[in-house]
Amino acid sequence: MTKNFIEELRWRGMLHDAMPGTEEYLMEQMRAAYVGFDPTADSLHIGNLVPIMLLAHYQRTGHKPFALVGGATGMIGDPSGKSAERNLLDEKTLRHNQEAIKSQLSRFLDFESDASNAAVLVNNYDWMKEFSFLEFIRDVGKHITVNYMMAKDSVKNRLSSESSEGMSFTEFTYQLVQGYDFLHLYRGHNCTLQMGGSDQWGNITTGTELIRRVAGGKGYALTCPLITKSDGSKFGKSEGGNVWLDAKRTSPYKFYQYWLNTSDEDAEKYIKIFTFLTEEEIKTLVAKHKEAPHERILQKRLADEVTVIVHSQEDLDNAIKASNILFGKSTSADLKELDEATFLDVFDGVPQAEVAKDKITDGLDIIGALAEHTGFLKSNGEARRALKENSISVNREKITDTYSISEQDLINNQFVLLQRGKKNYFVIRAV
């Protein structure tokens, strides 16, 4: 017996719209459903996490998930929610991106098991590349009227007076190509449900219409809300752009920090959407959080859960260690465990100065290190005063005016962290 997927989405705040009858249909037996992913990069970002979680919950409630990589549609560009066309990719890049995306999805979905509801990855390029234009307009195009296509919001918005770009024929046909994907999966895999963000409703229902008109069958549609932040800024963006699932594009430390810095209101919403915690566990956490909001219980648990799912327990432990470095609970030994990328992430924006490595090898006196060689403090006099006040640390350890910086102090053989008081940091980079 399958569990109630729609009920799961409802309490998690992940249901925007569903075609009438979808809930009852899914309760009858195991059903196949798909979500499409855009392969224009070799990594997904956290904006993709909601549709990924849709598929993960779908599989966990006993159904069969299909992840569709839009190799063909990625070559065209989807007009919904966009105001301009996107770049087109060659096949080699597409295949590379597809493999990278599958590897990320496999942290959420089980592709490998022998279970009847094992996940499947498909690429629409595989069935679209052999399709001639004439065949497409004959076999697909004739079933959908222009009036039907023009009535979609994604088309109306692009043709409205606000859009100076207009809309190319290529983009106009996008909903037909996506609709055909649904028909193809319906015929080949008995896939009867398509899911996506609420901006995809028009494209999804074009697919259900094709299934009805061409195959005389019934397809279902389900959408989730587009995630927003309570302050109105865009979810999934940091100052540096997208927050990616690939550790090379967004380090686990920065990824962890993104979730940790969520507002109370958003954390309560996100912990339901982006984790697999149960309703009971989340209620308990929310109650505890409300008793002591300053402890940020929700944010910490959210950041822990998502970092482990996307990266690993080890990456989470390192991210927590790195986070503690800025908040005074760490030692020189902790600092020296940081790899270069994490060190630079933690001290992103902290002023730096380059000092010749041989000066450090010979022993760099602390007054010179604080003032003339780096400009961290304005003068030797200020450096002496700060040392007298016992407010200077090298790599988190308090030192006196007789100290000299040596090779032993180098983190990753190139950095030294100076600190005055609790909040003033400075990085020396040995060159």
Note down, in words, how this protein is organized.
It is a single chain. With 431 residues, the protein is an alpha/beta fold. The protein is 46% helix and 14% strand. A hairpin with a 2-residue loop joins strand 11 (392-394) and strand 12. Helix 11 crosses helix 12, helix 13 (252-260) packs antiparallel against helix 16 (297-310) and helix 13 packs across helix 17.
Tell me briefly what this model is.
The protein is an alpha/beta fold and 431 residues long.
| Biggest sheet details | 6 strands, mixed
Low-confidence stretches: none
What class would the helix/strand composition place it in?
Answer: alpha/beta
Number of strands: 15
The shape is: elongated
How many whole angstroms does the radius of gyration measure?
A: 27 Å
Distance between the amino and carboxyl termini: 65 Å
Q: Share of helix among residues? A: 40-55%
Number of helices: 22
Major sheet: order of its strands? 1-6-5-2-3-4
Strand content: 5-15%
Mean pLDDT: 88
What keyword list fits this structure?
six-stranded mixed sheet, five-stranded mixed sheet
Write the layout of secondary structure elements.
Layout lengths: L4 H8 L4 E2 L3 H7 L3 E6 L11 H12 L3 E6 L1 H4 L16 H15 L14 E4 L1 H4 L4 H7 L6 H5 L2 H7 L9 H4 L1 H16 L1 E7 L3 H15 L4 E5 L12 E2 L2 E2 L9 H9 L3 H10 L5 H13 L5 H14 L2 H14 L5 H6 L2 H7 L5 E4 L1 H6 L1 E2 H5 L9 H9 L3 E3 L2 E2 L5 E2 L9 E6 L3 E7 L1
Parallel strand pairs: 2-3, 2-5, 3-4, 5-6, 9-15
Antiparallel strand pairs: 1-6, 7-8, 10-13, 11-12, 11-14, 14-15
Helix pairs in contact: 11-12, 13-16, 13-17, 14-16, 16-17
